[in-house]
Amino acid sequence: MTDSQDTVTAPAEQATSGGPRRTLPVGETRYTLLGTAHVSAESAAEVRSLIDSGEFDAVAIELCDSRHQNLANPDALGEQDLFQIFRQGKAGMVAASLALGAFQQRLAEQSGIEPGAEMRAALEETRARRLPLVLIDRDVGVTLKRIYHNVPWWQRFSLFSGLLGGVLSRQDVSAEDIERLKEGDVLESTFSEFAAESETLYTPLISERDRYMVLRLAEQCPPGRYRHVLVVIGAGHLKGMAEHLAQPLPEAPTPEREALEATPPRSKVWKALPWAITVLVLTGFAIGFSRNTDLGWQLVAEWFVINGVLSGAATLAALAHPVTVAATVVAAPLTSLNPTIGAGFVAAGVELAMRKPKVRDFANLRHDVTELKGWWRNRVSRTLLVFLAATLGSAAGTWIAGFRIAGALFGG
Question: Is the pTM of this model over 0.85?
Answer without folding.
Answer: no
